[in-house]
Amino acid sequence: MRSGVKVAVVGGVFAVVVGGVGYGAYNVLDGLGDSGVGGGSDTKATSSEVKTGPVTEDEIAETSKAFLAAWAKGEATVAAELTNNKGDAEPALAGYSESAHVTRAVITPGPATGSKVPYTVKATVSYEGTTKPWTYASELTVVRGLTTGRPLVDWVPSVIHPELGKGESLETGESKTASIEAVDRNGNVLTKEKYPSLGAILDDLRKRYGAKAGGTIGIETWINSANADGVDKTLLTLVKGKPGKVPTTLDANAQAAAETAVKQFAGASVVAVKPSTGEIRAVANNPATGFNTAMQGKQAPGSTMKIVTAALLIEKGLASANSPVECPKEVLYQGNTFHNLNYFSLPPTDTFTSSFAQSCNTAFIKLIDDTKDDAALGKEARDVFGIGLEWKTGVASVDGSVPEATGGEAAAQYIGQGTVTMNALNMASITATARTGTFRQPVLVPTGLDGRQLATAARSLSPNVTGQLTAMMRATASWGTGKAAMSSVRGDKGAKTGSAEVGGQSTSNSWFTGFSNDLAAAAVVQSGGHGGDAAGPVVAAVLRAGQ
Fold first, then answer.
1. Which residues pair with residue 336 across a beta bridge?
2. Is the pLDDT of residue 5 over 70?
């Protein structure tokens, strides 16, 4: 053991005390060079023979222990040498104490799963006489260096903190923005501790409205956004600033239901909107931290897009709820073959409602040429459903997109594939518009707080078209593909299912959208399969909470 280093056991792990500053870690391991661990980033080999093949269990254990010990002791250079990217790792590790002001860290690893090693960090953050504990969990992966053959930690920023991304950094100090207290429509306080999915939204609200709401700054630890216009993420509050009150349209009950519902499925997102006003009642994602997929995602929506397509076809007089349409098992369109799920077909006497409720792809594609306008679907989406009108919800959100397309690409768009992109917010709004016939731009923050102008669509659907569209959605919920998911939902209800094929995925994304009385909700579950199987129960849970 090196001179001047004292070792004590803290909470079952070794605490190495250097220079009066304590960092919990493993005991210092001697003779690492003999075991083949360490020796610098992946830059050069130290022997004529470079080891290849997967890393072994011993290499994973020894490399992770050595890295975590060096990091916990504050030895940024030593820890960085144990990664495959010293150039990026060293300043990030150094910043843990220098910028984030972590003065102590006890790092406790768990059992390795393959080459991944999870661990818990119990840190102490100190700034200008204020000290506060900070606990979180993350993981690292051990890989073999491409040129050295040595086992090394695969460097990614999330090694330091799970929410840290490329180009981002940790910092502790006086906050950049004033504190807020966000409340729901009934005055209930919304916190990221109680509603984890609102974390990014609350940070965004703070940046946009903190000063306007009369809040003051505090002392915090946060993640600096990689983008100049991005939103910093607050991780720890050492000293609270005086919060300014920021009203939202969210509903605490619906939000709680949404948070619980998305936990059923990895990669789930859901949004609920009130059709009569456009007010957003709930937003939730799993994982809860990180990117707000529910409001900022861009994905093909699958057959939920048929709500827009059906509105277009009915408006153009090419179909009606009670008129028969052809639904063959497959159809050829401009050299591209499209088929229904499991190649099902329907009798030629079945109505358009039946094709909609059972999600017949071919019935919709066969009517494309009759529209006599390649841009017809995009126009319908924009002029009636408000898609692509630059929504101003009060927080960061992304509008849907239906770019002009021809040939097979146009056919794919009619069934929600190809170049169409949506997120749960967009689909909840589309359902809300179908429910009332009029687009009302979704909002999360009342316009009275900042006077922003909301987007307005060029026209509404006629009562006749609205009636047919909602009737078809009711059929989907009562006896169509949405029946099982919507069986527990009461009131006047309707739905549409969707499964979106994504390149590189063996299982399609699950989409589901529905309404119950004056609440609409939409969800997507990554690789969830059929819409009614995964996304359906998520939507149903949120709709039930609003009843």
1. 333
2. no
DSSP state letter for 437: S
- Exposure of 403 by Cβ count < 10 A (0-12 exposed, 13-18 middle, 19+ buried)? middle
Per the listing, tokens 């101003």 go with: 392
Question: How many angstroms separate the CA atoms of 294 and 398, rounded?
Answer: 9
H-state helical runs in 8-85: 32-35, 57-72, 76-81
In angstroms, rounded to a whole number, what is the distance separating the alpha carbons of residues 518 and 492?
A: 9
Torsions phi, psi for 11 (to 5 deg): 60, 30
Q: How many Cβ atoms are within 10 Å of 99's Cβ, its own excluded? A: 17
Place of tokens 């130290």: 46
DSSP 206-256: HHHHTTTTT----EEEEEEPSSTTS--EEEEEEEPPPPEEEE-S--HHHHH
| Long-range contacts formed by 344-350: CB under 8 A, 24+ apart | 348/324, 349/324, 350/324, 350/325
Predicted confidence (pLDDT) at residue 37 exceeds the cutoff of 80: no
Q: Cα–Cα distance between 452 and 209 in angstroms, integer?
A: 13
- Across the range 282-298, mean pLDDT stands at 94
**Gap between the Cα atoms of 315 and 504, Å rounded:** 37
For residues 372, 311, 461, 301, the Cα torsion angle rounded to the nearest 10 degrees is: -110
Q: β-pairing, 180-183 with 169-174?
A: unpaired
